[in-house]
Specification:
Shape of chain B: globular
Distance between the termini of chain A: 41 Å
CATH topology of the largest domain in chain A: OB fold (Dihydrolipoamide Acetyltransferase, E2P)
Distance between the termini of chain B: 28 Å
Number of helices of chain A: 1
Radius of gyration of chain A: 15 Å
Number of domains of chain A: 2
CATH topology of one domain in chain B: Peroxisomal Thiolase, Chain A, domain 1
Oligomer: heterodimer
Shape of chain A: globular
Helix content of chain B: 25-40%
Number of strands of chain B: 11
CATH superfamily of one domain in chain B: Thiolase/Chalcone synthase
Helix content of chain A: under 10%
Structural class of chain A: mainly beta
Structural class of chain B: alpha/beta
């Protein structure tokens, strides 16, 4: 058995989604070059490696870009407006999440520090401003 | 990266093209697709027996509980024998289907191929259509965390505006231009002039993108016939030559990309098409680009090589992409105003090229057009098709 499949093995999409619902961001880190990702890669974009380790993110990151969503898709009906943000997490990879209740773009200048929290109604990956 | 197809592959010509009016469509997908297909084969002068392949570009056929659209539409057109294939590449389905047809004809697997784009979403309503559109994103990690299709492009827009000091007003000029062009397009969904002030005053759909920065939800169908040059000659149809064909991708998710101010798939697909054609961006008379949102047109004009990175928004505001500008962009009105029936869009771009290069585009005619470019993006760039066309 390869290194990446030891312990609890690499994270899966199902585990990543279930963890997000509980306010925890789980990712895969390449066992070779250490590149992190939160989208469950099978071949590492950085080095081509295929061995991954599961890791739990610190949950802390900084906003790289964002929007304020006015018209959501059905699962987020009644939640708008809210912010949707791409944040660089402390492990180096970007993660996408929503920031409930943020309707003013001035609240999320570049570099705004965010942390992963448990989402209302378990909806996806959720950030709050630190 | 793939090398270019080694000659000799066959020259391919677009010899027929047709589209429905975009907007709200009562017909089913089968009826609308077959109607457009009929108009295109009539224009081409080919009979059902001469069509070897039928490609259907469609993203949301299952809204009608109907898969396997290929045989359905081919059968309506008495092309029962034809090899059919449904092509789903989100909003780039049309461009991808044309690329499939091109490869089949250029490679000698078909002498004539019919490409039909067809889409119908108007019966869904805004919330449901918004949800369907997010299925082109990473549904688990983008849509699942609140992202929408406008929201993902708005995230790109925020990065663009911040990185280059561009403004919402500059983006508004893209909408103003495309709405103006669509006034001369009888098939356009939105036939209404808008001012910069109206765009800026429209409500935010997804900050910083406002209602008039966004394409509408449209129904519509379009079809083209691609034929090997000998068949086109036999039919007495000059049509329009495919000069270059490129397709490429980039990371599906924004969070897996090194940059949020470019769509690398556009650059890669364009490089392929330009290299095959032996042409450069300065040789292009006009371009139909994927302007699902105003910022998308700006990114496209940079990634295609018309303007340096970071200068596309200013170029639009200065009129350099208007009908009278140095490189007219979206004379049809683009997705923004002509409309964006998802799977149909890439096929409709080729229809515009056909009408322009045949000199039949009326009030939106680009004078002296010789070389045209079509650029079709899937979702936020995960897939892309770029084609170059000419009278040669």
């Amino acid at each position: 058995m390869r290194a990446a499949e030891t312990a609890r093995g690499p994270s899966t999409v199902a585990e990543a989604l279930a963890s997000a619902r509980q306010g925890q961001l789980v990712g895969r880190r390449c066992a070779h070059c250490r590149r992190a990702s939160f989208t469950v890669p099978v071949i590492c974009r950085g080095c081509g490696g295929t061995d991954f380790e599961r890791f739990v993110s610190s949950g802390e990151g900084e906003v790289v870009s964002f929007t304020i969503i006015g018209f959501p898709a059905e699962p987020f009906a009644g939640r708008a407006p809210y912010a949707f943000a791409i944040a660089r997490m402390s492990e180096g990879a970007l993660a996408a999440g929503w920031v409930p209740g943020v309707r003013d773009p001035l609240r999320l200048p570049p570099g705004t520090r965010v942390r992963v929290v448990t989402a209302p109604a378990g909806l996806g990956l959720c950030f709050e401003i630190r | 990266m793939a090398t270019l197809p080694a000659p000799p592959h066959r020259s391919v010509r677009m010899i027929g093209a047709a589209m429905s009016k975009f907007g709200k469509m009562e017909q089913t997908l089968r009826e609308a697709g077959a109607q457009a297909g009929l108009a295109a084969v009539r224009e081409a002068g080919v009979g059902p027996a001469q069509v070897d392949h039928v490609y259907i570009a469609n993203a949301f056929g299952l809204v009608e509980n109907q898969g396997h659209l290929g045989p359905l539409i081919a059968s309506s057109l008495a092309m029962d024998h034809a090899a059919t294939l449904s092509v789903e590449s989100a909003c780039a389905s049309g461009g991808a289907a044309i690329h499939q047809a091109y490869m089949a004809v250029a490679g000698g697997f078909a002498d004539a191929a019919l490409v039909v784009g067809v889409e119908k979403v108007s019966m869904l309503g805004t919330a449901s259509a918004t949800t369907y559109f997010t299925s082109g994103s990473d549904f688990a990690f983008e849509a699942g965390s609140g992202g929408t299709f406008p929201g993902l492009y708005a995230t790109l827009a925020t990065a663009y505006l911040r990185t280059f000091g561009a403004t919402e007003e500059q983006l508004a000029h893209v909408a103003v231009k495309n709405h103006k062009n669509a006034l001369s397009n009888p098939n356009a969904h939105l036939q209404k002039a808008v001012s910069v002030e109206q765009v800026l005053a429209s409500p935010y759909v997804s900050w910083p993108l406002k209602l008039y920065d966004c394409c509408p939800f449209s129904d519509g169908a379009a079809a083209v016939v691609l034929a090997a040059e000998p068949l086109a000659r036999d039919l007495g149809k000059e049509g329009v030559a495919v000069l270059g064909a490129g397709r490429a991708g980039c990371a599906a998710q924004l969070q897996e990309r090194a940059s949020l101010v470019e769509l690398p798939s556009t650059r890669l697909a364009a490089e392929q098409a330009f290299a095959q054609a032996g042409l450069a961006p300065r040789d292009v008379s006009f371009a139909e680009v994927h302007d699902c949102f105003t910022v998308a047109e700006v990114l496209a004009t940079e990634d295609l090589g018309f303007f340096p990175k970071g200068e596309g928004a200013a170029a639009a505001a200065e009129g350099r992409t208007s009908l009278a500008g140095e490189v007219p962009v979206n004379p049809s009105g683009g997705l923004k105003a002509k409309g964006h029936p998802v799977g149909t869009t890439g096929v409709a771009q080729a229809v515009e090229v056909f009408e322009q290069l045949e000199g039949r585009a009326g009030g939106r005619q680009v004078k002296g057009a010789g070389v045209a470019l079509t650029h079709n993006i899937g979702a936020t760039g995960g897939s892309c098709a770029v084609h170059l066309w000419g009278r040669a």
